[in-house]
Amino acid sequence: MKRITPVQLFILFLSGWFLLNLFQAVFTEITNDEAYYAFWGKALDWGYFDHPPMVALFTYLGSLLFPRNLGVRFITVVTQLATLVLIWKTTGLRLNSNRSVVRFFALAASIVMFSAYGFITTPDVPLLLFAAFFLYAYRLFLKQDNLLNSLLLTVAMAGMVYSKYHAGLLIVMVVLSNLKLLLNYRFWLAGFLAIVLLIPHICWQIQHDFPAIQYHLFDRSTGFQWKYFLDYLPNQLAVFNPFTLIAVCWVLFSKRKIELFDRALYFIIIGFFLFFWGMTFRGHVEPHWTIVAALPMMILVMRESELNPKLERYIRRFVYPSLILVLMARVLLVTDLLPQRLKFHGKELKYTTLHAIAGDVPVIIRGSFEHPSLYHYFTGGKTQLISSLYTRRTQFDIWKFDTDFYHQPVLITGDYEGRSKLLCYVNGSTFRGFFTDSLQVTNHIRISYELPEKVVIPGDTIVMPVVLHNTSAQDYHFNHSVFPGELIGVFINKEKMIEVPAIYQINDSIPAGKEVSTEVKLAIPVLQVDACNFTLSLKSWFGPTLNAPVVPVKIHQP
After folding, report:
1. Could you say which DSSP state residue 215 is in?
2. Which of 101, 129, 209, 382 has its CA 20 to 30 A from that of 417?
3. Distance CA 71, CA 60 (A)
4. What 3 state SS string does 472-515 have?
5. pLDDT tens, position by position, for the chain (558 residues)?
6. What is 445-555's CATH number, 2.160.10.10, 3.30.499.10, 2.60.40.10, 1.10.274.10?
7. Which residues on adjacent β-strands are paired with residue 433?
8. Could you please report the per-residue DSSP string of 355-386?
């Protein structure tokens, strides 16, 4: 029988990789984030509250071909094949050894999160694709500094940024590894053209007051906690596989002669690890934020294992057996054996049961973006998330679907004392709420104010002029029969909020598209801090909402 060639084996592995991920994509229940991104795909735009638009394009294109899970994940399944080919091409290795082909796919499969991103759709999937393309283009650019390779870098950089903002860190690491790039006009040309390609997204950010910058740089900051710092390394072991990380460290600390391209790979790996470890000083860091480092890891380990028999033996003895654990985890994902708290199964019944109660009535949900996203994904029903100062803002705050639900029956979910009743209890989840035909929310009111003093004294009363602007097409009523509202002051100290009633004179309503002015008196509460943040807010049954700028104030302690 004719022996299989390395090229044939590579194609065979790619085909098997595709079929395995295709099976996993179909039979693994949709995740919370994927339902959110699937919602994005139904409303294509040049940007979204949390991320750039590439992941939405992925879910949109997939939904044109297939329904449900496969529609959300099909482009992801195909994309990872291209990513694998680009990684192999970037290693510079020839397809002349079956053992090399087996080792390459084993390394890729051993990196847990990289393996997962072959069938789970997140912004990291297109980021990995364009980052692999960027490394490939950069290697070509180092070999031949010409216009074609400069244009390849342009497409790669724009694609990365359109995928996820972590692209900026990768580009910075490459530049730091080779500062001569700053003297290369073709590299500057690539960067300039990439910015030109990004103009639609930049305009979207300007139009919506830079929500992504506000969210990622400020809103996500929760302050230092030792658990964030200490959990970082164990989380990275889970993301990359400890046996594979040992091989990576072997290469990083044993290789003495480092070429310019390898230097970039070193900077990316070490830079991503140190940067996000440093980010734990300002809050929780998601373990998968470093996944781009998987690309230089695979390139370096593959290239070194071709030259170093000891490293090659280590991979066979330790990395290969670890694939059994990875495979077991993937099998568990398509079963209902994992605990429901991990949210890998059992979600569909909850939301279809709620939909059976709601019928064709829109469902208003409070809390996390996952609930309206999953509700819409499993049922197709109309829904809207109402955010407050106690929850983070999301893409739903930009969509504002609730403006279409006025003057019609809606189902309000949540525990509103005196109104809510038990709707259903499914798989450990309780849904409470009530029906109403008189929806009103406060999110559409914009409040302008100016504190008379930047230093306030507890016990004093401050007086300030305030303007309330109703941006909605509906009149706002303070004495609404179901959702009355009141103006309050909110002092924010890290995650703690102190609500202070405001004294003001105002008509019952603010007409649609109009604004009203009033004078607000506010008593400064006792605050055991020297500084905090302050804002004015409209509060209703949904809680106090973000209606006005948040400004820093100093507290004068007697």
Report:
1. I
2. 382
3. 8
4. CCCCEECCCCCCCCEEEEEEEECCEEEEEEEECCCCCEECCCCE
5. 578 999 999 999 999 999 999 999 999 999 999 999 999 999 999 999 989 999 999 999 999 999 999 999 999 999 999 999 999 999 999 998 999 999 999 999 999 999 999 999 999 999 999 999 999 999 999 999 999 999 999 999 999 999 999 999 999 999 999 999 999 999 999 999 999 999 999 999 999 888 888 876 766 666 778 888 899 999 999 999 999 999 999 999 887 778 999 999 999 999 999 999 998 988 888 999 999 999 999 999 999 999 999 999 999 999 999 999 998 888 888 776 666 656 677 788 889 999 999 999 999 988 789 999 999 999 999 999 999 888 888 999 999 999 889 889 999 998 887 788 888 887 777 888 899 988 999 999 999 998 888 888 888 899 999 999 999 989 999 998 888 999 999 998 876 889 999 998 888 889 999 999 999 999 988 887 888 889 999 999 888 999 999 888 888 776
6. 2.60.40.10
7. 413, 421
8. HHHHTTS-EEEES-THHHHHHHHHH---EEEE
Output phi, psi for 204, to 5 deg. -65, -45
CB 136 within 8 A of CB 86: yes
The pair of structure tokens assigned to 62 is 């997939």
Cα R_g (the chain), whole angstroms: 27
Residues 336 and 346 sit within 8 Å (Cβ to Cβ): yes
Neighbours of 387 (CB within 10 A): 21
The length of the chain is 558
DSSP 389-411: TTS---HHHHH-GGGGSTTS-EE
In order, the DSSP letters of 278-337 are: HHTTSS---GGGGGGGHHHHHHHHHHHHHH-HHHHHHIIIIIHHHHHHHHHHHHHHTSS-
| Rounded (10°) angle between helices 124-143 and 54-65 | 110
Give the C-alpha separation, 222 to 392, whole Å. Answer: 12
Cα-flanking dihedrals φ and ψ of residue 160, to 5°? -65, -45
3-state helix/strand/coil string of 73-124: HHHHHHHHHHHHHHHHHHHCCCCCCHHHHHHHHHHHHHCHHHHHCCCCCCCH
Q: Are 162 and 198 in contact (CB under 8 A)?
A: yes
The first and second tokens of residue 408, run together, are 């019609």
Per DSSP, helices labelled H in 164-259 are 167-177, 185-197, 199-207, 211-214, 226-240, 242-254
Spans of all domains in the chain? 6-203+222-333, 346-436, 445-555
**Helix/strand/coil for 528:** coil
Q: Are 505 and 517 in contact (CB under 8 A)?
A: no
CA dist 353 → 58, 159, 419, 424, 529 (Å): 29, 40, 21, 8, 47
DSSP state of 161: H
| DSSP label at residue 183 | G
